[in-house]
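Same chain as my last thread, 634 residues:
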Amino acid sequence: MPLKIETFSNKSGGNSFYKAVTHPLAARALPALFAVLGRGPVAVYDPLGFADGFAEFHDLGGLTLAGCYVQDVTEIGKPVLGRPAQPVTDLKSSGAKVVFVAAFDAGKLIDHIRHLLPEGAEVLSLDAIRLPERCITNKRDYLSPLNFATNFAFFRDGGGQHTRLVTANYWAGYGAKEVRLWCLLLDGKGQPIAEWEETVAEGVAAITLDSRHIRRRFHLQDFTGQLFLHAVGATGHDVVKYALDTFGDDGNPSLSCTHDANSWPADFYAGLPAPDEGERVVLWVQNSHPCPIPAGEIGMNRMGSPEIRVLQEPIGPFATREIDVTELLPDLRWPEQIEIVAGKHFVRPRYEITSGRRTRIAHANVERTDLKPDPRIGELGNLLGKGYLLPAPILPRDIWRSIALPTPMATCQQSLPIGAILYDASGREVTTHRFGRLARDHSTKLDLDEAINGHALPSGFGHLEIVYDPSAGDDADGWLHGLFRYEDRASGHAAETSFGAHVFNTVMTYRNEPQSYAGRAPGLSTRLFLRLGPEPYDTLCHLIYPASLPWHGTSTTDLRLHDQGGGVVAQRRISIPCSGSHFWRYSEIFDPAERKQAGDGAYIVVDDRTCRLFGYHGLIGRDGAFSLDHMFGF
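reply #2:
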């Protein structure tokens, strides 16, 4: 059964109570809490409705309960921990030896009921598992989202494979001071193997966590697990965003990149590709909680099929489990796609594809359970033009082959009425492709070589936009996604990335679109983070200027090169035509002297105050190795 707790709301954002009771430091304090509760009988006072959520992660079945009590008269009689709730005014006659108040910042709540406590009863609350004071940003409101600016990252070092996480102190841009990262490295069994605080320089400085350096620092053996990150002192954003590179030693051609894990576990994920001929596809399930995932809770099914195959073994607290998709679905082949039944046990998972000596990592996406078709989307063409569109690169065709696979990403999506528009880098429309009305269980990919065949692409590169096609159906919902795969024509090395549709570059708004980095819609400006690869890697970037309606004729885009401390070393201005794109490399834009001055740990901010750009980034290595993923903004 999936966990019965809200981890994320599309209206209110992340649930900080969920993060508070699953934080690794909170888990360390649990034995002391349960030692007191074990002196029972225990009366549970649940004034805020948190008791059942706490019990989802921490087994209360061993406690002797004297009763469950509530403050709100409308909650009387409703189940709390499986018992009918009683009015808190009856607490005195409960016979409890311990009163447990299921709330943080519980001082006032306890004061309100002191006269109702059974004689001699001990009283305690969830404050017993509060984080240490050094880890709390907003000390007046414990459940402030800024106190739980956290995330997980897949992290590996061993077998010739390494990991490098790069982000920036973007919180400083919102006025944050003295930001620190509390880091906990967990091995494959979920056991802590390293713990430290990462000092973050003042200003928008770069932050780099390299598995090789961490391994040497803590004298570690090979590991594959997860890195838990907690930003203390955060302002403006309560999520730790990052770019994550995985790469091989000299002679190992593996290279890939992905990004932050989306720190709220979901019921389902989708967009997991089945293996192509000669490939092995592994899903990395990394338990995000301090309690086991029971056997039978994690499963997979062919997208659109009701037949779910489940993993018949438990996964320990914070543990990592490698699942070869052929364990559960042996007969599927690319471009068939897989739905992941996750039960809110883990954040957005990564998958790894092995082909010969090369591996690549990408991530599945959150599948929404709260959507339904919105007929208005098809009626808004006069106001929003193309409306929701999903932009993705057509990489330079002399080097790379580009493939697109639309992916259902909401449980309501039984069909996808969509098409694709292909553009040259100049912004000129090259051709269109009608997918028609794709069924939920479709396996229809679009090879851009075939789509472009017979049409001119003068720039040699460009982009495509997957859009809704009202002539094929009216069951659009705004949550349109796709998987985009790229192959080096010479080496066979591949990379893939996935994302969802938005409304771009129109002053009219609909359902909080066009999205804004901060503040209300519309988002009509750009601030993207581009991490730069260390030598010998070069960095590539593909910037796209999508527009639902015609916007400014060209962008006014600044590429600012920063050193590791955040200082600006150099700047270039480029112009991208509306509905056009720009593919470039770090080594081509900034000269050797500027790159040397920027040094290791340098990064680029892509800034545009006139329009909203969408960006993809990656590294270029030796022997045709490359990576690609979409960029993050702040």
